[in-house]
Every structure is written in C-alpha cells, then in structure tokens.
Amino acid sequence: MLKIGLVGVGGISGAHIPAWEAMENAELVALCDIRPERMEKFEGKKRLYTSFEEMLANEELDILDICLPTYLHADFAVMAMEKGINVITEKPISLKEEDVERVYRTAEKNNVKFMVAQVLRFWPEYELLKEIYETKKYGKLLSGTMIRLGSYPRWSWDGWMMDEKRSGLVPFDLHIHDLDFMVYAFGMPKVAHQYRSKRPEQDYISITYDFGEFSINSEASWYASSYPFTAEFRFQFEDAIVANENGKMMIHLKNDEKIDLSQQAEGDTGAINLPKSDAYANEINYFADCVENNKPVEKVKPEQLECVLKILNNL
C-alpha cells in the first residue's frame, strides 16, 4: 500500500484528493497547509500539518503530491526527494527553465521518481487528437486552433495568481496547458506571431506557433469581466475537422458525415473510443503505477518541460 502525503490544500487539491482516495493500492495519510481551516473537514481522517518540515520528519511517505502555488513547486519537490520520497507536482515545474535540470538531477541522485502533472496529456479528447495526428487517420494536419479563456482569479490565496513573480500570469498558469500539449503531440514549435494585452486587472495572449507543415493559433485569457471558463480546440486535417467545442468532441468528414465522440453523461464509457474518465485521476494513477512497479516515467519528459519554459520565458 502506497503511503501518500499532499501539501497545499487549495483549489486543485479538490481534484487530487478524491483521486487518491479512490485508489485501492494507495492511502492518503497526511495533508499539509499553512491554513488549518483548509483541513478542518479532514480532522480525524488524516494526519494534519501546518509545517511541511514537520510532515517530512514525522511521515514515512512513498509519494508526495504538491498542490502549492507555482513558485514553490521546485523547492518543495527537492526537499521531499532528498528524503527519498517520489514526487508528483502540479504544473508548471517552475517559472525558471534551470529548475528542470535541478529537480531531475535531485530525483536521479536519490533514486526516486518525479512527474509534473500536465493533465492534458491524460485527457481522453486530447489523447485521441494526438492519436489521429500520429496515425494520419484523416490525412495530414493542416492547421489548428486552441483556446483557454477565463476570468481573473481574484479568489486565489494571498493574491498569488495575480502576482507575476509568483504565478507567471496567463502564460504560465493557463496557456501552458495548450503549449505543453503541442510540444508533447507535435514537437518543438517556433513562435510565428504573438500579441499580449497585459493590464493590472486582466491578461490576454494570442500566439501563432509554426510547426513547419502546419501552424496552430492559440488564445488564453484572464478577462476582467466575468466570463465562463472555456477550453476548446479545432484541428483541420486533409479529410476531416476534429473539434472539441461546446462540450462535444466531433469529427466532421469531407463527405458531410459527422461522428460524435462525446463522453456520455452517465455510464462507464463514452461513444466509440472515448471512455468517460477523470484526467486528474488518470495522471495520478499513472504516476502511482510507475512508483509501485518501478516503471520509468515516460509520459512527461524533462526536455519537453524545458522547451515549454523556454518559449514562455521569451514571450
């Protein structure tokens, strides 16, 4: 039974904690947050800490799950791995490109595993898109569009998300999802065109990436106005449009046939080959399996993380 500790009982922990608790071969034994009120509902169920150093000293953990603000990820990962603990951390690994080498060097030195939870790599719709591209099922890829839009995160603890030095703002917190998937699925792009509107109350970027034979247009925003979160894509292949829009995954073929691959609202599986699943649970189960069965963590590679951070730091 894997013993799990989690640090940072904030918003994203609401996706991680249920995933750990649903696993039969893992037990979430300890939580840590500097805000004791965030852990009140877990009293009597987990061991609770407001000091990370105290948790590391008292617990014998197999895996640490880091759900802290961005600027803390690398340092906390290094501290845990130097204690011989395997680490999965929320994205991004850091705001600094050089931290990739530091973190992976620490993992190798201490013979532990490390992974950044880049969740789109585990999202069924995105996995299917990658498969379609690689198999050329609908011919060559000609163009793509990816958008990720939302409102300014005024709700964040201590305003850390609105602090560029701590979060990196929209490029590192929001756009990184789509850019990471592009690098994972299509390779390293060149930035062909970029535009950014950054103001105290909002942040917006529009970027066109050049992959040689095709380009991908992307948008990401924290709007000042209240705007519903939207994450969609549309890719043009020679023989079809593959689109994940308005809550549906659709294939629009040249002969006007339409194939609905959308996940079902109920039941265990969706239409065709898109199972109803939780991508956060998928990534956590994948890492736990790597730890338990001593498999290499191949889904997320350090050179890909370095590529993403290099691009983001040059926007």
Which short descriptors sum up this protein?
14 strands, 6-stranded parallel sheet, 8-stranded mixed sheet, 29% strand, globular, 9 helices
Query: How many β-strand runs?
Result: 14
Q: What is the 3D shape? A: globular
- Supply Rg: 20 Å
Helix content: 25-40%
β-sheet strand percentage: 25-35%
How is this structure best described in words?
It contains nine helices and 14 strands. The protein has 315 residues and is an alpha/beta fold. A hairpin with a 4-residue loop joins strand 9 (202-210) and strand 10. Helix 3 (73-81) runs parallel beside helix 4 (98-109), helix 4 packs antiparallel against helix 9 and helix 7 (169-186) crosses helix 9 (302-313). The chain starts with a strand and ends with a helix. Residues 264-276 have low confidence and may be disordered.
Ordered list of secondary-structure elements with their pairings:
Elements (H helix, E strand, L loop, with lengths): L1 E6 L5 H9 L4 E7 L14 E3 L2 H7 L4 E4 L6 H9 L4 E5 L7 H12 L4 E4 L6 H12 L5 E11 L12 H4 L1 H18 L3 E10 L2 E9 L4 E9 L6 E8 L2 E6 L2 E6 L4 E3 L18 H14 L9 H12 L2
Parallel strand pairs: 1-2, 1-4, 2-3, 4-5, 5-6, 7-10
Antiparallel strand pairs: 7-11, 8-9, 9-10, 11-12, 12-13, 13-14
Helix pairs in contact: 1-8, 3-4, 4-9, 7-9
